[in-house]
Amino acid sequence: MESLALLCSFTTTTTTPFSLNPGISLHFRSKPISRSSPSSIFLPSSSFPALRSPLNSLLFSPLPKRRNPLLFLTRATSQNDKDPPPQTTSPPPPQGAKLLPFLISISIGLIVRFLIPIPVEVTLQAWQLFAIFLSTITGLVLSPLPVGAWAFLGLTTSIVTGTLPFTTAFGAFTNEVIWLIVISFFFARGFVKTGLGDRIATYFVKCLGKSTLGLSYGLTLSEALIAPAMPSTTARAGGVFVPIIKSLSLSAGSRPGDPSSRKLGSYLVQSQFQGILSHTGLEIDLGWVKAASTNSSALFLTASAQNLLCLKLAEELGIIILNPWVSWFNAASLPALVSLLLTPLILYKFYPPEIKDTPDAPAMAAKKLEQMGPVTKNEWIMVGTMLLAVTLWVCGDTLGIPSVVAAMIGLSMLLLLGVLDWDDCLSEKSAWDTLAWFAVLVGMASQLTNLGIVSWMSGCVAKSLQSLSLSWPVAFIVLQASYFLIHYLFASQTGHVGALYSAFLAMHLAAGVPGVLAAMALAYNTNLFGSITHYSSGQAAVYYGAGYMELPDVFKMGFVMAIVNAIVWGGVGTLWWKFLGIY
């Protein structure tokens, strides 16, 4: 991948230095390669080199021929003797922690530990861990260091201060759910590397792409179909859909960072961005896309990293959801379907594209499919491996095979058959980074529960709600809204879950909310707030980085769709859950 990234950097500007002595340094630059007339439906996304398919490298223009270095060397030498050009050096990038965010993050923990009296119900160990946890969470929001580095500092502090023993502090690194999330990143890499994601999305563009609205539905449905085999929303966005949307938009004269972006690109990006996150059941468990069977819902439970984590944290508080795959599908299917139908239409009304018809899109898709040729052996292996993994996920309880073991079997097959090699896994930095900081957060949150901090907090909230004489349905609405709005302070859905899910679930239980309803609603809510800002999730940064959305539009449409989702999931969802007997 490093060589691929180097090749990508040369496709726009090629710089070749010649240095015969310290006083002579020449650089030859080629002309920028024009992208005004893309020859393919897909343009490689320059913002996300790690997510490119190898097929895309074939679309790069060849390197321009270098000019004779001796001719320019003679000119540069004579010119250098007369008037040496000034040498400018760029300042080195800042190193270490950012001072102000660091001081704020540390101060939060110190204030809680030493200035706020320890409650009678809480032990010194629990309060000290709570202070470290708050400093860690504050640092995740303010980013004095990269997420993984800051989490490691929090972990180290908990051990150095004697708050947690070493084995307990690192206990979450053996958590099955966390390793399932890590392996899902490797599945996503295989899905992009084989080009299967491009092929599936192109089929939907070919079938539904005659109008802008149909094109939006086609991209959304292809997202739903790809989701179970590509369990990273960020990878799907950067590796498949942003390149497709860019190519379609550029072919229609809609360019990023330009007034022409409103012709087509802005609507497609906004629709895909809001759609995949608003109708969370579509990504996670909308089984009718694949087959009219509730068992196929298991395909989509792993579509986002935080979903299984929510259920795992719920189990620690005593909320056991029997047959979670089917239960998840049953609860989400109807509100997810309603959101699926409404999202493109609402955006078409409030954020309309200037181009309503796209008659050339199906032809472009057909041409691209012809260029791709028949389905390759690696694509078939990827399909077969994912079908096996999904079958084991669905039947895991019966066969006694945990979900993480099913994922390990699938990854082992991809490695044995050559679809992935170990370098692919090692280069998936996001997977290992997630393992590091996610395990730290989950471990701390689990210990806070064991040491009684969560029950103490939930008891305080319960007393406040009782003093206001709120019934459990009203408390349910207040807590769900609070959980949603707090995400404006977070830049990660999984980080939000690790920090607050257990505490808010405990507050629901203390207020008398039925346990399964509270656990499932919070889990769905976690998916819904992934599109409210340009930093609310990994995929949010990807879509915003495409250059087709203005920042005010991101916040405005994020708020509009938040209201729509609150109505759909709060209205249709709660009635549906009542019908299913969840409460």
From TrEMBL:
Domain of life (superkingdom): Eukaryota
GO terms under cellular component: chloroplast inner membrane
Pfam entry (one): Na_sulph_symp
Gene Ontology MF terms in the entry: malate transmembrane transporter activity
Cell compartments where the protein resides: Plastid, Chloroplast inner membrane
Keyword Nucleotide-binding found: no
Topology relative to the membrane: Multi-pass membrane protein
Alphabetically ordered keywords of this record: Membrane, Plastid, Plastid inner membrane, Transmembrane, Transmembrane helix
Transmembrane segments: 99-116, 128-153, 173-192, 328-348, 400-422, 434-458, 470-491, 503-524, 557-577
Family statement: Belongs to the SLC13A/DASS transporter (TC 2.A.47) family. DIT1 subfamily.
PANTHER family per record: DICARBOXYLATE TRANSPORTER 2.1, CHLOROPLASTIC
Name used for this protein in its record: Dicarboxylate transporter 2.1, chloroplastic
Record organism: Gossypium anomalum
Lineage: Eukaryota, Viridiplantae, Streptophyta, Embryophyta, Tracheophyta
